[in-house]
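[job 4471] stage=fold_predict status=RUNNING
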Amino acid sequence: MNQTRTIGARLREARRERSLTQEQLAGLAGISRDLIAKLEQGRRTSARVQTLEQLAAALDIDIADLLGDRGTGPDRRAVLAGSIAGMLAGWPGHAEPARITRAWQHPAAVDPDVVSSLAAMLAAQRQIEDRAGTTAVRNPVLAQLTMVEDLLRGARGRGRLALVQVAQQWAQFGAYLHRDAGDQAADRALLAQTLEWATEIGDATMTATVLMNRGEAALSAGDAGTALGLAQAIQHNPVVAVGQRARAAGLEACGLAMVGDTAAADRKLGEAAELAARLPAGSQEAHPWLYWISPLYLECNRGVAYSWLADDPRYARRAIDAMQAGYAGLPEDHQMSSWGGTYLAHLSVVYIRDGDTGQACSIAGQAAAIMHRTASVRLAAMLAHVHALLVSRWPGDPRVAEVGRTLRTQ
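[job 4471] inference complete, writing structure tokens
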């Protein structure tokens, strides 16, 4: 459960247990009724620690109870009771958590070292998520986003611009964590926050990242028009990092395939390959949230795009070759991540369409192992679809039945 929904549900529950209206709770806590309504309805993604403390005191409950302290990772009680250092000490790369604590208490104290430490902290958590899945970092990352928002409220000048650069990445990562958990509303809310901060500092590549995420969501929902429009907007901006433009070309190819324009989709995949070939070594240094984009990742993406054309055996073969080659070359932690597992789900679907039962079931089983290890809701939904296709095509095959058992049990 994400932080916002947990706060809203618990806040509403505790208020009703005490027979308090929102107006009465607002009076007791000394905060606005509008804020309480936004929290209960999930329209606020976070709240200041002081605000949460006031609400908890007014409801006579522990602040950790208000937040639903169920997550893994650093102790969220320490964060939400005001001890930022207690939480930071649990993460790698932070020799001076006290420096961030001072900055949180006195925003004017935000300096380049604080920003650098926050950036290192976020990078470490991305690596943890790759290895252990989103549930390992979701609650801490969202709690830390509250801290970063607090820092921004008092930041100004050059220090603010540097902090916004990190804050936008935090919000974008938080959106991804919500997306992997299947929470589309929270995903969209944090992407909106990401876009606001990206606009503030004029970051065209982060803006493109948000548009890409929204375009992929539109494609999944069957909205080819939105996917095509956003993909084209990304490609038309030459300032955007080439890796994102290559991804956008692949997204456009998928949209074109969805509407049946195979020739245009094929041409667009050629453009995507040309862009991917221009990806220089170390090209993501200026865009650390794109650390995973590589020629091998883009090859996997090319395979996914070809999979939209896989009713034609020629394209099915291209999809299989591209995804197999790209996935095999990814670092092991990327292969075993929830997003790495999505490529196996796509590959299994292509094998189904190609009529290869054994390979389809074998690949689906590999993806199921990743699903269980990472607890990815998104991957689970994809594999449920894969299994439904398997059952529809080969209802009595024992290998299909085994995939079903694997999906149900760890």
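[job 4471] summary: Residues 8 and 41 are 6 Å apart (CA to CA).
[job 4471] exit 0
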